[in-house]
Design a protein that fits this description.
alpha+beta, about 20% strand, 2 domains, elongated, binds zinc ion, three-stranded antiparallel β-sheet
């Protein structure tokens, strides 16, 4: 990593010591010579989704992306990789904020709330498929519910 003081290269003086807080390392800057410690914290990258009947499965961002892409078929959104990646990132951040586990229904809500602003048509398709909305009153109720949150 770069020196936080002068941005020059640093080298590890002492390799990791695992402490209850995380992995600690001592570094020295090759430029200004300052020594500092770093603390490496493992970030949980595997999230879980709680389905109905309390069945828990691993969150699969590729699967989520595929389901959004299928809802965005022939829409400009399908080619907008930056927006799609941002959407997946946002959803992942939300799951992380919740401690790494999310209810499938909440996950659907997160995706719908974002899709609605990004692409209303993709949103309606996603909601009808993944929330099993199969009539206009159901869709209207869904829209009202999202407006309320
Ligand atoms: Zn330095």
């Amino acid at each position: 990593m770069r020196c936080p003081y002068c941005n020059d290269e640093t080298e590890v003086l002492r390799t990791g010591k695992i402490t209850p807080d995380g992995m600690r390392r001592k570094r020295e800057c090759k430029g200004c010579g300052i020594r500092f410690g770093t603390l490496e914290i493992a970030e949980q990258l595997t999230f879980r989704v709680r389905k109905r009947k309390n069945e828990v499965v691993l969150f699969d961002d590729q699967k989520l992306l595929a389901s959004i892409l299928s809802a965005a078929r022939k829409r400009p959104l399908a080619d907008n990789t930056a927006v799609l990646a941002g959407l997946i990132d946002d959803v992942s951040d939300d799951i992380r904020d919740r401690g790494g586990v999310i209810d499938a229904a909440d996950l659907g809500d997160l995706v719908c709330a974002r899709l609605r602003w990004v692409d209303p048509i993709a949103y309606v398709r996603y909601a009808t498929i993944h929330k099993r909305i199969d009539d206009i009153p159901g869709l209207r109720a869904e829209l009202d519910r999202l407006d309320g949150t």
